[in-house]
Structure formats: C-alpha cells, structure tokens
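Hi everyone,

Forwarding the result from last night's run.
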Amino acid sequence: MFLRCTHAAIMALHKIKAYAQKGFRWIFPEPDKAEDGRDQWPSRAAFLLAAMGGCAGQGNLLRYPSVVYNNYGLQWFIPYLLAVFLIAIPALVLEISIGQAYRGGSVIAFNNINGRLKGIGLGPVFVSLIVVQYFTVNLAWIMNYFRNSFTSPLPWENRIEDFYNNDVVANPAPIAGSLTNGGNNVVSYTSYPAIGLIGETVGWSAFIWFLIWFSIFRGVGMTGRVVYFTMGLPIITTIIFVGRALSLDNAGAGVKLLWGTWRGDQLASGTVWQTAVGQVFFSTGIGFGYFTSYASYNQKHSNAVMDAVLICGSNVLFENFAAFAIFGVVGFLRRWPQDGERLGAFVVGFLTLPEAVLQMPGANFWAILLFLTLIVLGFSSAFVMLDVVATLLVDSGVKYSRPAIVTALTLVSFLMCLPYCTEFGYYLLDGVDRWINNIALIFVVFGEVVSATTVYRWTDITGRVGLPAFIVYNLGYFGGLLIGVTVAHGVGSAGPGAGAGFGFFVVCTLVAGFIAKAPASDSFGIMSKVRGQASQLWYLAFYSGNQLRRDLNLVVGGGKNWNIPSFMPVLLRYVSGPVLAIIFSFAFPEFHTLRYDPMMITGFILSILGMVGVLLGFVMPRYYDAFIPVHRRDEGTQVTVLNEPTGQLDTLSVINSDIDGGESGSREKSLSEGVRSGNDSPELRAERLK
C-alpha cells in the first residue's frame, strides 16, 4: 500500500513538472530558428512592432510637441519632411539591410563591410548602454507620478512645479559656478550639496530593470510577444487621450496654432532647419544599434527597404497624431508661444500635462492613463537598447546561455544607473544626455553613413584609379568638412565656411581626377582621355556606396522585395554626412560655455571616450576581434572583382550553419569561388542571368 502511494505521488510530481515545463515554454517561448541556426522572429509583424517601439517612445509624446510648439506653423513640415526623406529613411535602410544581410549585430555587420569598421559597429552599442542607464531613471520618475495618480485629490494640485522638483526628482538646487567676463576662464565650479541615494527612485528603477530582463532574457521569441502589448496599449491610450484633449474648451485654437498657421519667414532661419534635422534624427532612433540587431533575426530575404519605410512612416504618423493631444491642451490652458520663451520636453511631460489633467472631470482616471502611456512608451524603448548589448555578447560567442548573459547584464546595468538615483542625479542625467546625444550619437551615425560609402571594397577603387587618387579625393571630402565648419564658426557666418570647405573639396577632386590612373581604352584623342578621367571620378565618388547597394540587393532586394534605390548611397554620403558634421560642430562651442559644471564635464568626457573607442577600432581593429566569433572574423576579407557582386553574402548562410556540405552548399561555394577568382564559370553566368 505504501509503495503504491509513493509511486502515485511520484507520478503526480512528474505530471506537475511536465505541466510546469509546458507552461513555462508557453509563457517564455524559445525563439524559432532560421536555416543558418540564428534565432528568428516569430513573425514579420513582431519585428516591425519591436522596431517601431524602439523609435516610438516618449520623444513622440513629449519632445516632438515641444519642438513643434517652439516652431509652430505649417512651414515646420517643409524642413521636417525633407529630413525624413533625405536623412532618416536612407540611414534606416542601411542599418536594417546590413543587419539582415550579414546576420549579426552592428559589430559583425560593419566588420563585413570592412575589417577596420568594428569600432563603428561598437559605437551604437556604447550609446545604447549609456542611454539606457539614465532612461530607466526617467521612467522611475514617471512611475512616481503613476503611483500618486491613485491619490485623490491629485498631490500636485496647486503645487505642480514644487511637486516635480521636491517630491519626484528631489534634487536640492546646486550652487552655480561661473565664468569670467568673456568666458575665457572658470571663476568657480558648480557644487552639489547632497549626494545621497533616493530610495523611491532606486526602487522604481529596480522594478523597471526587472521588466526589461523579463522582456528579453529568452530572446526574440519572448520579445515578439511583449511588443504586442508595449505598442498596442500606447496606441489605444493615445487615441483616447487625443480624443479627450480635442474635446476640451478652446482646443481648436491650439490645434490651429500648428495646422492653421503659416510663418514663411521662419524658413529663412537656419535654426528651424537644424531643429528639424535634430528632431527627425533623435526621434527615429538611428545610431542606437537596435535596428541592425533586430534585423539580424529577420528571415534573410525579408523586404528590408519596405520595413524601413514602414517603421519611419509609422513614427512620423504617431508623433504628429500625438501632437493633437498636446496642442489641444495648449489651447485649453491658453498657453500661447511667447517670443524668447521655449517649451522643453520636461515642461510638457511633468508640468503642462499634469496641469491639464487637474482641469478635467475624473482627473485621477486621466492621470493614470497619461502616465501609463508614458511608462509603456518609455519601456518599449528601454528594453530594445539593452537588447543591443545582449546581442553583441551572445553573438561574440561568450560561453554562457542567453538567459545568464541577460541576467548578469541587467544586474550590472542596474548598478550603473544608481548615480542617476542620487540627490544630484537629475543634473548628472542632464549632462550625460546632452553630450551623448550631441557628440557621441551624432559622431556614430556620421561614421556609419560615411564609412559604409567610402571604404566598402576600397581595393576595387584603388586597383582602378590608384591609391594616390583615392587618398587625395577623400582628403578633399573630409578636409572640406573640417575646413568648412572651422571657418564658419571662426568668422561667425555659414557662407564663408561653406565656400572654403566646398572650394577645398573641388580642388582635391580635380587633382584626384588628374592623377588617377588612365583607364584602358582603344580610343585616342583628348576627348577620349577626358571621358576616361571623368569615369575615374565616378569610381572615386560613388563606387563604394553603389557597390554596397548592389551587393545588399542580392539579399534584401529582388523578386517582390523593394530594391535599395540607386540614389540612397549618394544621399548617405553627400547629404547625411555633411549635415551631421555641421550639427556635430555646434556641440563644442556650447560645451565651452558650460565647462564650469562638473556634470557637464562628466557627460562631455564620457562622449569623447566613446568617440575614441570608435576611432581606435579603425587604427587597431584586432583588439575588437573579441566581439566577433572566431569562425566569422575573416568575413569581409574576400578578394573581390571590380563591378562584380561579392560571393560572401550568398555563402553566409552556409558558413554560419551546421550544414556540412550537400548539394546546395557545394553550389554556393562554387559560385563564391567563381566570383572571388573572377572566372566566368557556367554557374556564375547562370546566376547572373537569373
């Protein structure tokens, strides 16, 4: 009898264990596997929602309306939409395409473009790791508001600024430093009277980090489920909030401020153009690495160009739709723009919107809805940033499981965020955020768009035109940018700077064309020689970007997929690159006026260290090999033939899988060898024809 009972108990325990394991796998599913063995999104919709969640964050509901408020009027949409089409979409196409084609995070992807670009690939990982630390603390402050939204009456009634400064942030005012007249020397440095940890901020930060860990520790299988909530809920709540805001008294006057006003004279100011580029740049989320990382989990031949357009387009639609809520509140509060007064993002989120909520019937409900929306939007951006770092470590071949890596990474990140939870944390956040965004992030994206269109298959170019011509042309490009911004800031006018920089570029271009090797030709005469040298200039100016486009289209284009358009590399190098260089140049004069603040100095030094890390990868690339698995370190080193597609992309799926031979593998290997050797084999001719 006893044995039968024991046996029954053991069987029951086995059943319970089996059901528990089944339930665990259902709640935390393992990701699907692609043919090359890499984790894969459960669906294309999951990838799109995760990518949209990365860019559709608090910046859409807070920063964008503030920027538009300061530049109100329909004229705003001219520079804004130009920036979307000329900068955001091309850069997004690049990041998604290389992640999908090269089957890895940003370090592996840029190593495939050129072995010296591993630092460029590490740059987005650095930016995401730094930003996510203080981003979670910002979410902790919102959680404080969310908790207090259940109290009636709302505790910030009649003390909105006092509640924000003393109850939420709880940072005593610093003793401000100063510069001498003229700003040549520091008279005194800003000092901060308190340094203790703030318990509630630490607690809410720990809670946010737990949610981040929960969302990504099992990989894209679990993340693919979480994103339906993190994107679905904010869309629903934003629609509700927009409807309520537009029903407020005088809301129409606020909406008319944006959609019914025209101030054409503003287009003559460089400020509105710079602001539009900056907004599109930061709102889209380029340069954080998560588009490349997440695209690497796509099916290899997904429609990358269409995905990029959908992601960027949805971001534009969401932030402009959300702006209706803010401008409805602006009309209700009758807070009209004043000359010299600019509305910041924190003012909208923590002061203006809570004030509007107080005036609404059922204030607690609307407060809960508002801060829940902000929390979920911010959370969807936070976990994708940490996932960039997790992807780097998992791809590098660290001998630990993904759950173990993500757990350790989450704990370390929580400890790194503690300085922002102190009584000087708000000021540290401001200093780090300002310079990471204005220096490190812009430098990283500049490096991405310019390097990919400059050094990809550069030996093809030097073999065609000669190394001296290649060096002189690129000296003109980079030297022209440096001379242009230096002269412009030196004389205080953009015109002379543009003239000096462009003039230097033109001179170097002409010299490069003159010293370039003459192409082989059966024709004689001066005109034939001129045409030949002009063709050499095409190779110097456009070959790298155009060949990268052609090679990527072998994977992401063709069939029903959208091809990467031929003008995209031109936009990346000759529009995005110079624009980013100009924006980057404004950061250093600004820091010069703030160098008396230790928190500003901290953020500035941190951003410079990030830049140095990127540049060291170009000078000493072998030190970055630790971030790439051994069997993939030789990718990007294959011998190529001028104007011929590379065989590398066709064979990546074979190299990275456990397949050992087979008819398909032999065919791709043969094709790859044919491309590398330049032999026009029957298989290669058939592949070209197909």
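Residues 652-690 have pLDDT under 50 and may be disordered.

Cheers,
N.
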